[in-house]
Amino acid sequence: MMDAQRFEAILTAYGADPSRWPPAERADALAFECAEPDTAKAIREAAAGLDTLLAGAHTPEPSDALAARILEAGLAETRFAPRWMQLAAVLALSAGLGLGWGGASLEGGNLDSAAYAAAYSGFADDGYDYIADWVQEEAR
To answer: Where are the alpha helices (DSSP H) in the chain?
Structure first.
């Protein structure tokens, strides 16, 4: 069965109207109201007062100047975004090259030939085979 703290938490979060309460806890909350009518009434009245206050609150429409500033800020962000994407691509490429050369040096082989072999070993085109053969000849 639900206790007073959980009942108050539900009404504080969802309001006094039972149709807005979580369906999984609605039956327990209504059962708590029947079992503890005085406690539930006090909690529900406080929640109803807040509901009334929130329902009467008026949110002003933003001014045209504010809307223009928001749109301008959004456009400035989209103009700046491609530079960040370019920087991210350069950093990723640099990290990949650095890790590749670092891994090749750990193998104890020739750094240049190991790096070129690793870079071109995955390609199936004849042109890349020619380059791989040339690298091997240069390494000798």
So the answer is: 4-14, 23-35, 37-56, 64-106, 111-120, 126-139
For 33, what's the count of Cα atoms within 13 Å in the CB-facing half-sphere?
17
Pick from 50, 27, 49, 30: nearest CA to 40: 30
Cβ(99)–Cβ(119) below 8 Å: no
**Pair of tokens at residue 128:** 């890349």
Summarised one tens digit per residue, pLDDT across range 76-86 is: 655 555 666 77
Rounded to a whole number of angstroms, the distance between the first and last alpha carbons of the chain is 82
How much is the pTM? 0.43
How far apart CA 79 and CA 111 sit, in angstroms, is: 41
On the 0-12 / 13-18 / 19+ scale of CB atoms within 10 A, 47 is: buried
CA distance 128 to 87: 28
